[in-house]
Amino acid sequence: MNKRVLFETIRTLVAIGVALLLALIIIFSVSDEPGYALERFLLGPVTNLRNFGNVLEMAIPLIFTGLAISVMFMAKQFNLGAEGGFFFGAVGATALVLTFNLPPVILPVAAIIVGALAGGLGSALPAVLKARMGASELVSSLMMNFILFWLGLFIINNYFRDAMAGAMASHRFPDAAKLTRILPGTRLHFGIFIALAMVVVVYLFLYRSRWGYALRMVGLNIRFAEYSGINTKSVILYSQIIGGMIAGMGGTVELLGMYPRFTWFQLPGYGWDGVIVAIMARNNPLLVPVFAFFLAYLRIGADIMARVTDVPSEVVAIIQGVMIMLVTAERLLAGWRHRMVVKEKMKAAEAAEVEGGGVQHG
């Protein structure tokens, strides 16, 4: 492990520790039974199989959106369209499974492909505006989230709504479209393997392909990348479109794994959570599942605590906010890092001086 990775790891752990300490202080301040509340918060998710299954279920969409945001952020494209892509991918998948009568296995695979294409389509416009006109992808992607949301509702309500459902919902999905449950007593489904496979695919793409190399170079220094002959406009385009496709895939997997029909009539929020996961993971795809699991664990623990104690679940929102502020604070532990670098340089200089003296003596 090099010094930079070590420093970032320690800084992230310090941020998490400070946030959890603050949560501890809040729990002891507002609860009549702080010990029990803390025990439910920290250990509740692992007290039984159902609770732990809930953690894994929640981690699946966070992995997808965390990967989507990481790809875009790695190229320094601050596209926040994973939320809309996640939602619109689920809309595309709904349209496919309710229109085509395909056999098992083929139907969910086709739905995931269509969902990915729908999510990529949602990110294409901000990418084109940035590459061709220099428009801020941050602003255009935020606006695109709401365009995709209302467009998706229009499609569901006008073409796939079940008038007999008693609520705004699509027709039920055929059994052939649903992802298989893999852990009895929970709703954990096959999507967790798809999510983990995508972690490997994204890692190989970023670190073992020339397209991933170009993407990382653009993120490090776009002017240097241009001078090196990299087509930076194409990188800007495909980094955002790939991120949108991953988000759309995640929306499809979440829908077919957890729901019998489309019932999302507000944005589900996983795209915003993906920003948190990506920031915590430092855009490293191999760390995305770790922090997706961590965030899911905190939320399930907070939910359990809120249900059985007098501490509100909003405590986890405070923890998230503090962690993000500290992780992104460049000056956190900067003095320690500076001393570490200086000490390393001094050791290298002393070694070089000793080696030079030995050569002169000889």
From TrEMBL:
GO MF annotation, one: transmembrane transporter activity
Keywords, comma-separated and alphabetical: Cell membrane, Membrane, Transmembrane, Transmembrane helix
InterPro entries: ABC_transp_permease
Location in the cell: Cell membrane
GO cellular component: a single term: plasma membrane
Transmembrane regions: 12-31, 51-73, 80-100, 106-129, 141-160, 188-207, 286-309
Membrane topology, from the record: Multi-pass membrane protein
Matching PANTHER family: ABC TRANSPORTER, PERMEASE PROTEIN (PTHR47089), GUANOSINE ABC TRANSPORTER PERMEASE PROTEIN NUPP (PTHR47089:SF1)
Protein name as annotated: Nucleoside ABC transporter membrane protein
